[in-house]
Amino acid sequence: MTNMITMGEVPGGGPAQMDLAELLATRLLVQGNSGSGKSHLLRRLLEQSARLVQQAIIDPEGDFVSLADKFGHLVIDGAECSEMALHAAGERMRVHRASVVLNLEGLDADQQMKWAAAFLGGMFETPRDYWYPVLVVVDEAQLFAPAAAGEVSDEARRSSLGAMTNLMCRGRKRGLAGVIATQRLAKLAKNVAAEASNFLMGRTFLDIDMARASDLLGMERRQAEAFRDLPRGTFVALGPAMCRRPTPVRIGSVETESRSAGPVLTPFQPPSEPLHDLILAPLPAAEAFARPRKAPATPPPDLLSQLAAHGEAQAAAAQVEQEQEETPEDQGERESRMAAIVRDMLADDETAFRSAAVLYQDFLVRCRIAGLGRNALDLKGFNRALATARSGVTEDLSVTPEWQQAEALANALPEDLQSVFLFLARAAIDRQPCPSDAEIARVYGTVSQGRARRLLEWLEDRNVIVLQADGMGRRVITVIGPGWETLPGAPQA
């Protein structure tokens, strides 16, 4: 089987071929302003290699879903999936060797970044037995690996940038070959762009992008203005997979069509009806709506008045809370109500993957709604209540000496590991089968089973637990000290 695919032709020469095996080892960066032909180039690359290598496409605009009709790609609609489902889909597509198009059309930028990070994370954390070669194409890569913070949340930006960095920096050993396309190199994170060894640079007009493109191709600065004159669909290629010197390449035709083709010029025919009646006709009664006149804004008070008003409000709130605290209430009933609130929060599937700070704010709001006041629990107390609830302990077990001993042992561990330890201790005390990696990962707040295994190894290194295997290879966990031991259980159950 040949490794060469034809991308187009060299003007005045022969065909422009790309070594697919070399591309999988050295990655590719495509750059060009809107309308330069980047999507056409990616489509040509995907069509030529569709029957040679498995493909995964991160598609923010739904341009590549048409590949499914011709080449059998599975189209995953991001609007119909959760973050956890996409992480599992990224792992399963490598296990079953299926080419996939992840369509993120219709999602906002924050959700697109989180969903792409989850999908790439699943592909990256696949077990070693399934590290088959995959061509991972990311269109509009500046959306997922921005060079600077934008309007998206810091959490979404960190997760997406981390996933893109893993793809380009560490993906090669796992069989993942990144192909990223961007409109502007200045908007793309440098540590992501720098890992590519092959380049296809299209038409560019801004000086900063032309300078970066010429630097990547090893061209002189005075030659950078040539990027302004490149025709649509022509790119300057450089890299071990195509050519050793910068060479213009005209991309060939494609077999499939994009759903988001550019505007087509058609003859303009003005309407024959009077424009005044068409555009300025009175609204029907059903469509008319009142537009109240805004009252003039009052001038803001001076700074001293604002501080005085804030102090009075704080004093009034403190007095109300003091009056509420003076109301007699059984402390045991109060703790029971707060524990019930925590259990209700954990009933939501998405709660397991939210940060402790976000959950704490949700907890405080629920406590105020339930009439428990603002300061129901501090953050440390909430983390302990959350760890206890995640362990799945019953009310009968929570009052036993064994569970009190388990909580004492958990106090010596970092807060983020206490829920995992209590979960394992509860299973050992109840003599239940050893929890699987997936169950441990969920209690920790992740979908990565590899991280769950690393947590167990960390606990064993600190002489907290002992990991054993029975004659059938099933895992047994023993808590050091009390000697509680789980029944054998399969880690991959």
TrEMBL record:
Residues 8-72 form the Helicase HerA central domain. This is Helicase HerA central domain-containing protein. It comes from the Bacteria. InterPro entries: ATPase_Atu1862_pred (IPR014588), HerA-like (IPR008571), HerA_central (IPR002789), P-loop_NTPase (IPR027417). Residues 310-321 have a biased composition (Low complexity). It holds the Pfam family DUF87. Gene3D superfamilies: P-loop containing nucleotide triphosphate hydrolases (3.40.50.300). Signal peptide: none annotated. Residues 310-336 are annotated as: Disordered.
